[in-house]
Amino acid sequence: MIMEPKSDLTHLEFHIPSRGLIGLRSAMLTATRGEATISHRFLEYSPVKGDIPGRQNGVLISMGSGMAIPYAIFNLQDRGKFFIEANVDVYGGQVVGENSRSGDLVINLQKGKQLTNMRASGSDDAVLITPPIRFSLEESLEYIEKDELVEVTPKSIRMRKIYLDEQERKKFSRTL
Predict the structure, then answer these.
(1) Residues 30 and 77 grouped into a single domain
(2) What is the pTM of this model?
(3) If DSSP codes are grouped into helix, strand and coil, which group holds residue 60?
(4) How many CA atoms lie within 13 Å of 105's alpha carbon, on the beta-carbon side?
(5) Residue 53 domain-assigned?
(6) Contact 56, 69 (CB under 8 A)
(7) Burial class, 67, CB count within 10 angstroms (exposed 0-12 / middle 13-18 / buried 19+)
(8) Mean pLDDT value across the chain
């Protein structure tokens, strides 16, 4: 590692494996408020030196297929941060958010509000949904774990579990 001050800037040099560069640019730009300049070049082939740490939290996984109901998203916001907007089609096994705790959580985004013929004061207020987190392709590739995939279509970039069915995920989680 080299660290040299140059006027009001600091020049840093690191030896980082290529697999460690995925997501580094966005993290550095965020940490330096857009002031970092990054360049890299190949140094040498070398043996794998160890694991690169991944995310700490689990993900929120859609239980079923259909439209993501705003009322369901509103009630599940305390479980974590969402990657999708309301009224978007989702499917079972799709990663729709980041869990606030470790471990994956399967959630039902199709559960609507129970309708009654009685009106109560304040019960029909508009729900306030936090804006979703948007990922670029590089950020998605950095975010996923070994049991997840990134799905790229002309209209969207989505993350999903390899096994869409919850029972299959449990069955094959022992082999990963």
Answers:
(1) no
(2) 0.77
(3) strand
(4) 20
(5) no
(6) no
(7) middle
(8) 88
Pairing of strands 66-67, 148-152: unpaired
Cα–chain-centroid distance for residue 107?
15
Determine the pLDDT at residue 124.
53
CA distances 7 to 10, 11, 12, 28, 161, Å, are 8, 10, 14, 20, 48
Q: Are residues 140 and 83 in the same domain?
A: yes
Instruction: For residues 96 and 20, state if they share a domain.
Output: no
Judgement on whether residues 19 and 97 belong to the same structural domain of the protein: no
- Chain centre to alpha carbon of residue 172: 22
Domain of 68?
59-114+124-172
Task: Please name the residue that has the structure tokens 């999708």.
Answer: 84
* Alpha-carbon span 83 to 159, nearest angstrom: 9
Predicted local confidence at residue 29, as pLDDT:
86
Half-sphere exposure of 12 toward its Cβ, with a 13 Å CA cutoff?
9
pLDDT band at residue 24 under the 50/70/90 scheme: confident
Q: Give tens-digit pLDDT for 70-129.
A: 999 999 999 999 999 999 999 999 999 999 999 999 999 998 877 776 665 555 567 789
- Alpha-carbon span 122 to 125, nearest angstrom: 6
